[in-house]
User: What shape does this take?
Amino acid sequence: MNFILGKKLNNGTKDKKKLTAIISIALIILLAIGFVGKNFKVAYKVTLDGSVLGYINNKDEFTCMITNQVLNQDNENMELIVLNDVPEYSLSLISSNAQTDEESIIKVLKLKADVTYKLYAITLGGEDKAYVDTLEEAQNQVNALTEQYKDQTESEFGIREVYTDNMLEYKNMKYATIAKLDGRLTAEKEAKEEAERKAAEEEKARKAAEKAAAREAARKAAQEAEENSNPLTDSYAPVSSGEVSDTDVNGVTFQYSPVEGRISSRYGANESVRNHTHKGLDIAASNGSPIYAVADGTVTYAQFNNGGYGYLVKIDHGNGVETYYAHCSKLYVSAGQTVSAGTCIAAVGSTGHSTGNHLHFEVRINGSNVNPQNYLYN
Assistant: This one.
């Protein structure tokens, strides 16, 4: 009996020890849980290609952030965005005071993403000149540029879609704006206009120099001819060549008198030397004296005439106005040539039906002769 009682006492003691151990372990666990709960929190560790990017609170919410902020960025030039490496997530304990890294991880993922950009190039002659964001903007700009520079370039403006996955190239395209293109085209236009203006001034100066040289040569020739010929009789009315006050002839301006000499026969005269009323004005001058165009025009005839005019020059001044210069000894122009008022076109002579050195000068309006002294030598 004592044995049995002793055995029961021993078993009771063992049970108490087990219970005490279990309670101790439970207390330790509770204390550990309380300590962890107070000082740590559960988070997801994010790794990409083996590298830890940081920690996040909620995996699902972060996946939405990737979709909205990385794959669907608010940039109309981004045609396609791809993440070639997918982030991996694993549960972890981090300090309860620690901040998670959602925003910084998103920034890293943006840098890691492969982006294809799309822009619209404005082309000129097939070459890209500027870039815009949308097709509508490209069409509007092409229309505006075409209208503004239609007289400057023979090449056509066009539109081309451009794709690039190179960030530097994309930034350079964004830098090539329409404003910069417009500035270049305007500068080119102004440079072209300035070059044309200078060329026109040089051409004007060249023609003036040629005209002055021709006049001087004609003057010297006339002087030499005068010295080698008999002086003119004083019975003729003296007239001179040179610039005159602008005279309107049916809308054409006579700016120069044709020859220096003396009037020997007037328009409408009836004389024994001819069988018809005189249709022009005769100015006697020394052989070789210069004859000048009275106005700007185009030479329509410059050769020997068998109708009595001898060597003859005809000039069409427009508006139906023509002038004739007959009995010349030399011709200095040819048919089809454009001349200016004061251009030396021939030399005085006595060719054709002529009784002495003189210029037979006619003015015709719409084919009908008029008195030259209505406009010159009056």
Summary: Helices lie at 2-39, 59-71, 102-112, 135-148, 167-175, 178-227. The longest strand covers residues 114-124.
